[in-house]
Each structure stands twice: as C-alpha cells, then as structure tokens.
Amino acid sequence: MKFNLKQEFKQQYLMDWKFWFKALAGSFLLCLIIAMYIKGLVEIGALKNKLIENLKNMDGYKQSEVIAYLNTLKGTELYDKMTWISLNMNFVNESGSLDKVLKGFMIGANFGDSTIQTFSYFTTLSNIAVGVWLLLAAFKPQNEGKKGFLSYGMTLVVTTYITITMLIYNGMLLPQMLASGRNLTPVGWLESVVEHMVMPLAFILYICFFFKSEVCYTKKQFMKKEWWKQLLVLAIYAVYIMVRGEMRYQGEKPKSTQYPYFFMDIHADNMMGMPGWAWLIIAMIFVIAICLGFSMIYHIILTKRNSKNINQVN
Q1: Does one domain contain both 135 and 263?
Q2: Disulfide engineering: 279 pairs with which of 136, 222, 263, 268, CB 3.0-4.6 Å?
Q3: 40 and 20, same structural domain?
Q4: Domain housing 123
C-alpha cells in the first residue's frame, strides 16, 4: 500500500525551509548535549576501570610509588574526571620496612553527582530550552507565537536566556579560561562554539526575522506582564546554585564542583584581583541588565516587524 503525502503537508513541512532549519538545528543541538553528557559518563567509567586495573597490579607497592603513579595521570584528558572518582587506599606498615605499602583499595564513580553538575550549568539548560523550542516549532508551527512553550512570552524568555549564555561566556568565561591557561580538546571547542556562539546567533536571528507572532503588547504592558517572569526564573536558578554550592563547600567537596561558574563562588578570596562576592554582584548586575535590556530590544523588533506586516496586508 502506497503512502501519499497530502499537498498541505508538503507545503507546511517538506517544502518549507523553516521546518528543516528548526528540525535539523533542534535535533543537532539536543543530540550534541546528550552525546557530550554520555561522553563524560564514559570517561568517568574509563578512568575508574583504568585505576582499578593499575592499582591491582600495584598491590604491595610503596606509598611513594603509588602517589608517583597517580601524579603521572595529571595533564591527561581522563584526569579531568578525577573529581568524580572516590578513591580510598589502604596503606600498611610491613615488618622490617619503614615505608607503608598498598594493601587493598576501594574505588567508586560518582555518576549521579556528575549528572547534577552537568545539568546545573545555565549554558546546558538554556541550550536545551532552545533545542526543545525548535523541535516543537518545527512540528507544531500553528502554535508558534500563540500558546504553550511556543507562546510569545516564553519565546522571548528562551531568546533572552540564550543571549545571556552567549554574552556571559564570550564576555566573562572565555577570557577567564584563556587567562588561566586552560586548553580545550577539539571536541570541547566544537561543543563550546556550537552552544555559545553558533546556535545562539542562529536562534536569535530566526526569532528576530522569521518568528510568527501577533504582538499586541505596548512597552508598558510588556514590562508589566513579562519582565517579572524572566527575573523569577533567573532568581530560582541563582538560589538553587548558591544553596547547592554552599552545601558542597561545607561538605569540602572538590572546589571545581562547588559552583558551576567562577563569579558565583562567594568563598573565593582573590580572583583576578577581586573577592568572589564582588564578582557575584558584578555578574548579577550584568545578567539583569542583559535580561531586561535585550528582552525589550527583541520585543521592539518583533513589534515593528508585526506592524510592518499588518500594513503590507492592509
């Protein structure tokens, strides 16, 4: 039995470049995020297995020799996952020897903590929102700009948040990373460029020039009805990160796993010449300014575009 596509379906989907853009871009972005998440878990598992295999062969080795082996891992790609490995080694004194030797060990992989850390990054969450929006808009274009996650208000929230991701990363995080001498792998650079530059710009351009909207808010109405929603979500995220970070700080967890961003680490004494709390205040002011300013800019762009389209129809 042959399956014939209706002409309406062809025009609405297969013959519309916007469908392909949204479907492919959304799928690619979400697949990239999932792939990088799985890659991280695989690397943690690989590091755990490597440690188990090597430490088994080092049973009876002196403590200094075991420490020297662990130091050889530094600088390797797998070593970055060491913060998610729990390693307890038992060293005992053997008769006639002053040095302690290895007699058993226990290793655990903290996959759960790693997962929570991954999905605590604003970059990850905002890109997931973009990917979901694109897929929903691809297969339900009739809802674009009207209801649910594709409504006008939620669309501006997603657009504003991905703008925050792009500007904060390129304006604060990337310079700090380069100044610290940290280098990314080729795959890491691919993920970074896609999530912080390519996809944000592509999504913003689509919203500004092709998003279907029936704008009916004045500037005052927009400020009253939409601004508080954007700030509320940011406030909830900030409270979550600060509470989680404080709990990990008090629990003496590895410093790199306490706060996802350096400017949220209020316990840092001196970071590029300023204490952590000062960076937090600067970041808060910067983020709020981006949120309020760019959401209004996008609203004005869409309002003017909508007015132009109405005039052309009339």
Answers
A1: yes
A2: 263
A3: yes
A4: 119-313
Same domain, yes or no: 131 and 85: no
262's torsion region: left (phi>0), alpha (psi -120 to 50) or beta? alpha
Look-up: residue for tokens 């790693």?
Answer: 114
pLDDT tens track for 101-157: 888 889 999 999 999 999 999 999 999 999 999 999 998 888 888 888 999 989 999
Summarised one tens digit per residue, pLDDT across range 287-312 is 999 999 999 999 999 988 877 654 44
- The pTM of this model reads 0.87
Q: For the beta carbon of residue 59, count every other beta carbon within 10 angstroms.
A: 12
Q: Is 96 left (phi over 0), alpha (psi -120 to 50) or beta?
A: left
Q: Which of 86, 117, 148 is the last residue of a domain?
A: 117
How far apart, in Å, are the Cα atoms of 206 and each of 109, 133, 212? 42, 12, 10
Tally of domains within the chain: 2
How many C-beta atoms lie closer than 10 Å to residue 216's C-beta?
10
